[in-house]
What we know:
Blueprint: E1 2-3, H1 4-11, H2 15-23, E2 36-37, H3 39-53, H4 58-66, H5 71-101, H6 111-123, E3 141-145, E4 152-156, E5 161-166, E6 176-181, E7 186-187, E8 194-202, E9 213-218, H7 219-232
Antiparallel strand pairs: 1-2, 3-4, 5-6, 6-8, 7-8, 8-9
Amino acid sequence: MISTKEVTEQLGIDKERIKYYKRMNVFCAESERSGYYTENDVKNLRKLVMLGKAGLTCDDIKKAQSGETTLMEVLTERRQKIKEKMERMLGSLCLSQDLLANDVQYESLEIDRFWKIVNQREDEGKEFMEFEEEDIPLCLIRTVQCPYCDAEQDIDLEEYVYDENPEDENDADSDIIYSVDSEENYDCECCGETFRVMGWTREYPVNPYYPEDISVLNIREIEDGEEEEDDYE
């Protein structure tokens, strides 16, 4: 088995990339042990990283994985899109150089002049990059206390999400509720004992108006309780 740290060092990526692959449904680890991967897992991750360097998105990769289209077709289509993007980038690069050459300042920017330049170039067939909203990464990191040694540690609940649903299905802007369960796969960073984290949380910061319910369970007590029930029966 190979730890997450070893995998990230081998592939030159961070663990956020692995979680992203899982969230996008292009990677599912064979290993059932949290934080560890098999040799085949690493091979699949290497494939994803390499295809990403070729410009493929996770949606592109899913099409090839599912057989919806071939990898060659996906690469050809993505290559054309990359060329188009490069042309837009070149248009923006030239425009930014024009602005720099004129020593522009925000308050005194001659907007009419440069707006005209942009319109002229667009009439000539030139294209520019458009504003793109940045993807804000989902943060479900919470601090929990080990039921054995009482040590506090941060745990990324995103790794243990098994269901997600809007709080109000009739409201498009409704907060997303995430159901989480680590089962018996989380080991304390201090004492090494295994405990279970389960419950539900949401994507927005926790405050009195946005509650969550996360429980930390002692595996030993659960197992002892089950044994007592078996003996009683």
